[in-house]
Amino acid sequence: MIVEVALPFPGRRTFTYRIPPELAGRALPGSRVVVPFGRSPKVGFIVAVPVEGSPPPASDAANGRLLDVIQLPDDVPLMTTELLDLTRWAADYYLCSWGEAIRAALPGGSVLRPARRVRITSEGLREAESLLPEAAGIRDLLLQALARTGEKGLARESVIAIGRRAISPSGTRRPAGTSDAPAVPAARGGRRLVGPASAALARLVAQGLAEIIERAPRPRSMGPPGPSIERDGQARAASPGDGAGGGIGPPPLMEAQQEALQAIVPALRESSPSPFLLEGVTGSGKTEVYLGAIDACLKAGKDALYLVPEIGLTPLLARQIRSRFGECVAVLHSGLAVGERRSEWQRILRGEARVVLGPRSAVFAPLRRLGLVVIDEEQDPSYKQEEAPRYNGRDLALVRAQLAGAVAVLGTATPSLEAWRNARSGKYRSLTLPTRIGGRPLPRIEVVDLREEFRETGEIRVLSRRLVEALRDRLARREQSVVLINRRGYAPFLLCRACGKTVGCSRCSVSLVLHSSDNTLRCHYCGTKRRPPVLCPICFSEHLQAVGEGTERVERHIQRELPEARVARMDSDTVRGRRAHEQILSSFERGDYDVIVGTQMVAKGHDFPAVTLVGVLLADAALGLPDFRAAERTYQLLTQVSGRAGRGAGLGEVIIQTVRPEHYAIATAAAHDEKGFYEKELRARRALRYPPFQVLAQVLSRASKPDKASLTARRAAEALRRHGGGRVQVLGPAPAPIARLKGRYRVQLIARAVSRRRLGAALRGMLSEAESEGYHRDLVIDVDPVTLM
């Protein structure tokens, strides 16, 4: 019996292995498998069991025969057939290996590296015995040291370098043939273990006195199969969500909500493949439509998947869903501990959890009878994964719904241009919630022109007079406020007033950001951290000044202007703990804080009835970026954060501070003019041939030297043009907007075409050529990029 195995590293092919007779009954597609590969065993995934007698690829055979599988750790496959199909589609579309796609799908800890151990050879022991009368003591010490020395230990432990030294009565004699080795003084009661482990071990191995052994890894079992799961996945367990729910019943629905639900429920029964786009103004009750659809899905005996763009949206939403459906709800995201995530995966695999909530990685949840996929805030760029495999969770969710015959519902107050156009063309079925719950009005939006503010006050103010006045008013009325500034830290850069240079990162072509909480300069790309210099590194002037605003600085300004206010901050610096999101949001919901200052984390999905004021700082900051989605992102962010105000009994007010009030992204957001924005933006995209009118891919060449990065980019560009056959336009190569990142220089190409099929064929042809010529490892291919930075 032979199996086809996908391994989780680059290289777009699979490998064939033989199953030993004693393991044959457990070799099923979707199971993990430990196989010999190169110099050490690897954990891969069985993706197919070929027809018996079919010839394996010649390159997979060693000495005319296939290698045997070493271990099968799973009693039940971790991947369903549907997930294997989904990951294969993802690997082909996003141009990664099938193994990489499967690894991204499974919970952390599912793929382990082989364990490394060090062993002294028989030659090494004989050498020790011949050199020293205390050979037994040396041997025992050595064996103890090597037993403690694993892969990580090699960097910090010490080992005895036998064959390089010996202890004479004078304490300095060296054995013959090792004159370059340092002498080691005797130590009372035995011999010291000395020397840098890695260097000492390399010499020992080179002399044949020690060897490194890589043992097959032992992946943890994902748990025994539940009594309800059979090999074919057909049997299921009863769960608390089988009926109308296990908890609090739904509130009364408005007419528009009922109409939306009445369109979705029949599609669930018919397994209709056409997606719905649910457009609803902020506060219109989209979540209740989702929950009503989930209820209908469970009653039909099917499972539901509910995707949100960020981890921060899951805690309060999970509480709300569990209050409706009980313990049949599972939460999957990377913020969970490895054991927690594995436990949730087991519950889903066994059929105990039938509703799964989470961000983009939850798209791979092993639900067996998927009937409904909800993609909330479908426009959010957080659905895109920025490292390999570079998939878009929204798009992959649509593909999964199609493969499973499930209904997909995309929900948003600010559709992506692609979704907006698809709904207008009839590709998506359009549903609308035009008013807020209870007929509450949309917030009143006021735009403060900071240019006028400067002319009147002569000051560059972080908080405008109007915003301070409004914050003070809300504090007096015991109402809450949200202040958005989409920059973390204290100040975005440290500027020398003498030479005009900023203090930059040594590994990236960006400025270091000042953080006052620990008085450090940090790179938000590579993580470099250092103390702020006293003198300018360029001209040695002492005139260094923190310029610009971040969340820390805004927090201080608010505390200075309103010393009695209780202020919370929410950004990626304050939510590092596993439960930090939930703690901050729950405290704000309880009323423990009057003002919350944050990045875009505070802008979407949250429902705080006591919030009546939203302030937006640096509203136009993104408009200066070299990115074709800058206006769209600005409009969406302003609309989303504005929707946090006035969701309760109080009227909502929004104050937007900007130096570009005339820009259409800001003007249309302030006027609640969705149609005006999309019509203007679509005209601009059509003229420039950007999505949704053409499809894009970004190809990055990365290297430690700029010349090598440029050469690789030119080769890739030439290959793309050849394989595109004149139907794929290639822009570049040119330095990327961030030309150096994490110590590597970056040169980019942009490939675009009218046809996805044509673009995909050109990219695959280019990548195959790069693989055959050996420069593919220097390339990063991003299909359907959400940013070109």
Structural category is alpha/beta
CATH superfamily of the largest domain: P-loop containing nucleotide triphosphate hydrolases
List low-confidence stretches.
Answer: 147-197, 224-245
Number of self-contained structural domains: 6
CATH topology heading of the largest domain: Rossmann fold
Order of neighbouring strands in the sheet with most strands: 11-12-10-13-14-9-15
CATH architecture grouping of the largest domain: 3-Layer(aba) Sandwich
Helix fraction by DSSP (H/I, runs of at least 4): 25-40%
Features of the shown structure:
789 residues; alpha/beta; GIY-YIG endonuclease; 6 domains; 7-stranded parallel β-sheet; 6-stranded parallel β-sheet; 30 strands
Characterization of this structure:
This protein is of the alpha/beta class. It has 6 domains: 2-114, PriA, 3(prime) DNA-binding domain (GIY-YIG endonuclease); 116-215, no CATH class; 255-438, 3-Layer(aba) Sandwich (Rossmann fold); 444-491 and 548-685, Rossmann fold (3-Layer(aba) Sandwich); 493-537, no CATH class; 695-783, Alpha-Beta Plaits. A 7-stranded parallel β-sheet has the order 11-12-10-13-14-9-15, sandwiched between helices. A 6-stranded parallel β-sheet has the order 16-26-25-17-24-23, sandwiched between helices. Strands 2-1-4-3 form a 4-stranded antiparallel β-sheet. The model is unreliable at 147-197 and 224-245 (pLDDT under 50).
